[in-house]
Amino acid sequence: MTAKPRGRPSVNLRILPSSMSVLAICAGLTSIRFALQGQPHAAMALIVAAAILDGLDGRVARFFDAESRMGEEIDSLADAVNFGVAPAMVVYASLLSASPAGWVVVLLYAVSIVLRLARFNALLDDATLPAYTREFFVGMPAPAGAIAVLGPLAAKLQFGGGWWSSPWFVCAWVAACSLLVVSRLPMKKMHAVAVPPNLAALLLAVLAIVAAAAFLFPYVLVMVAIAAYLCHIPFSVRSHRWLAEHPEVWGERPKQRRAVRRAIRRAQPNRRSMARLGLRKPAGRT
């Protein structure tokens, strides 16, 4: 009987997504340590790193066909730590430790993230929802909420102290982020956004600029990203409402949907006329 040649031990890549989630938890908890030691730069960098890992672990799981119930639970718990507890503690230790109301608003934010994640998990099992709703988050997603709540800290690290770092403004900002997190506002998922082929080169140029800004002006980039995300919300709500009113395009690709919208606009050129706005011409004029 001949012995089989001993090869290199195989690596089970199915644990890679869960490993990334655990690394994200470590990054989130370590950010609290740096914040308590008065190092907000490192604390913010670790939360951003946790957000990047969170965005990658699901895609890695699908790529290696390694999706599992345990992995989903680990990812959900990681989100609660990284985007609920960690940002709340970083903001409190860096900006609100001297404010009596500071602890209340960071508790509100952390609880809002947990409630938002619970609702997200519940909606995953709801088979009664229309197909187009899968293209939208309900409320601000947890990673976006974590980056948004760090906005005043990013402004302080970039520009120094000012009204943006005062306790009253930070408390109001954190409370507003908490409301967006638990709101019912539809927010477009990034992977559901389709870029027309003629804009692909422009998108690559923008990504190159963003990569350079991440090294040269990281806090300005964080503030610009927050502003851009907040500005996209009205457009996302409008898109959600339009899809709800046009079930015939739910199964169409983005290119076909854009064609339908253009056709509807051409068929209704006066949709924003004075009559639609409820205005009337002055008396005596024709």
TrEMBL record:
It catalyses: a CDP-1,2-diacyl-sn-glycerol + L-serine = a 1,2-diacyl-sn-glycero-3-phospho-L-serine + CMP + H(+). It is a multi-pass membrane protein. This is CDP-diacylglycerol--serine O-phosphatidyltransferase. It is an enzyme of class 2 (transferase). The chain crosses the membrane at residues 12-32, 101-124, 136-155, 167-187, 199-230. It comes from the Bacteria. It is found in: Endomembrane system. InterPro entries: CDP-alcohol_PTase-I (IPR050324), CDP-diaglyc--ser_O-PTrfase (IPR004533), CDP-OH_P_trans (IPR000462), CDP-OH_PTrfase_TM_dom (IPR043130), CDP_ALCOHOL_P_TRANSF_CS (IPR048254). Its EC number is 2.7.8.8. Its main location: membrane. The lineage of its organism: Bacteria, Bacillati, Actinomycetota, Actinomycetes, Mycobacteriales.
